[in-house]
Amino acid sequence: MSQLGFADLEYSNRKxxxxxxxxxxxxxxxxxxxxxxELVTPYxxxxxxxxPPRGVEIMLRMYLLQNWFALSDEGIExxxxxxxxxxxxxxxxxxxxxxxxxxxxxxxxxxxDENGITKMIEESVKGFLEKHGKIMHGxxxxxxxxxxxxxxxxxxxxxxxxxxxxxxxxxQWYFGERLHIGVDAGTGYIHxxxxxxxxxxxxxxxxxxxxxxxxxxxxxxxxxxxxKRDEIKDxxxxxxxxWRVNTQKPYxxxxxxxxxxxxxxxxxxxxxxxxxxxxxxxxxxIKRIFGxxxxxxxxxxxxxxxxxTLCALANLYMLAQSVNVAVx
Length: 328
Description:
Elements: H1 6-11, H2 19-30, H3 33-40, H4 56-68, H5 73-82, H6 84-90, H7 102-115, H8 117-131, E1 139-148, E2 165-169, E3 172-184, E4 190-197, H9 202-205, E5 216-219, H10 230-233, E6 242-245, H11 260-289, H12 300-322
Parallel strand pairs: 1-5, 5-6
Antiparallel strand pairs: 1-3, 2-3, 3-4
Helix pairs in contact: 3-8, 4-7, 5-6, 5-7, 8-12
């Protein structure tokens, strides 16, 4: 902001900054704003007809705030008015302009969705990581997590989202989608993601998560037997991969006698789990820190669009942590 107001002068005398303000300052520094704006500009209205549109950058900042803090269109509009940290991140001066309303944000998100811009943003972040040697090749960790959707039928169609499905995990039923991600085995950055209905088997999506130069793939017990599937055996690349998948751990059921063999088996399972744990942190960032615990939109396509955004932002979050920048 070019000119300080009375509120800015008052807030400048605080003894410390909040964690939210530190987080937004870090993200503001680490995001390549000019590059992201160039990705959106070709698809953005030029303002020759109708009401002049708000700037690309201010809408992009509002959209990112919504994804970081899991807020609705109306919720993020109110939060920007209410939070000084949000207003500073938005670069807003209420003496000259107001916060874009919820309808404007909805139309901007629709523009991103229809033109695949969030996918381009995700590729931009991966390109930056590749350029600076932050991603290693040769190994991938695959995993999936269920994100629940609304089960209410109180809508015009009187039914739940037809693209979402229910699935039983353990002794509990879930209704929603399944987010599949592929993570670099060396550094833990997300390099691929896929959104499906919750009842889609995890192993069906694996070929779309593995990179062309991967030689090793790690996974939990849900991927047992994947090397025996026809689509794996018939693929020249996938059939040569070393599938290091955790087993169901039968030694925990007191079926094996203690000895060198059992101890070695446990050691090997432990080593696979140590590598595979990187994918759990990626889900922790998306679901716990960014609050992506519930599906917000109807249909898989819109949620795939959001998944691209969340994975790109999760990579930036982990990058900031890797260079010892306070982000929490």
